Amino acid sequence: MTGNRTFTMIKPDAVEKGYIGAILQKITAAGFKIVAMKYTQLSQRDAETFYAIHKERPFFGELVEFMTRGPIVAAVLEKDNAVEDFRALIGATNPADAAEGTIRKLYASSVAENAVHGSDSDENAGIESNFHFAGREIF
Ligand code: ATP
Ligand code: MG
């Protein structure tokens, strides 16, 4: 069975460029309902914890520096088949490989600064939503 929720962040690059409204428009137009949302900034520790799975990768330091350099939007989204459908909507990690019309094709500039995050499994969607919204009544 597939879940009906996923978790997203609009990353610092997209916030800096003024793309919050355009990206939220794409998300809601694709049929996702926003269940919870906040405008916030990750601390170094937040980013290291959130992306802990990548801590051995050569780009980890760059990733943490990027994700903490400015505000982000964090949100929980609801739709049938949410994780898979949202990954399709955002496109490949590297915007050069992302399909036409995807959020990363439209708004990302590089594999590092790729505009949005999308959970990669139902389990991680739950973990990541709790990381940002633990204790909220919706959960
Ligand atoms: P996300 O988890 O943010 O949705 P993703 O699942 O498409 O992205 P991951 O492999 O999980 O991709 O990588 C996490 C993030 O690390 C990427 O979104 C990107 O910001 C950064 N990243 C990935 N590969 C590289 C790289 N080769 N160089 C620099 N940064 C990278
Ligand atoms: Mg990922």
Give the arrangement of secondary structure elements.
Blueprint: E1 5-10, H1 12-16, H2 20-29, E2 33-40, H3 44-50, H4 60-68, E3 72-78, H5 82-90, H6 103-107, E4 116-118, H7 122-133
Antiparallel strand pairs: 1-3, 1-4, 2-3
Bound molecules: adenosine-5'-triphosphate and magnesium ion (MG).
Structure, explained:
- The chain is of the alpha+beta class.
- Helices cover about 40% and strands about 15% of the residues.
- The protein has one domain: 2-Layer Sandwich (Alpha-Beta Plaits), CATH 3.30.70.141.
- Adenosine-5'-triphosphate binds next to α4 and β4.
Indicate the radius of gyration in whole angstroms: 14 Å
- Poorly predicted residue ranges: none
Second CATH tier, the architecture: 2-Layer Sandwich
The largest pleated sheet is described as: 4 strands, antiparallel
* Individual helix count: 7
Q: What is the topology, as strand order, of the major beta sheet?
A: 2-3-1-4
Q: Report the structural category.
A: alpha+beta
Q: Helical residue percent? A: 40-55%
Q: What is the overall shape?
A: globular
- Head-to-tail CA distance between termini: 19 Å
CATH fold field value: Alpha-Beta Plaits
Average pLDDT rating: 96
Number of domains: 1
Assess the beta-strand content as a share of residues.
15-25%
Bound molecules: adenosine-5'-triphosphate, magnesium ion
CATH superfamily: Nucleoside diphosphate kinase-like domain
CATH class: Alpha Beta
**What is the total tally of β strands?**
4
The SSE string, one letter per element, is EHHEHHEHHEH
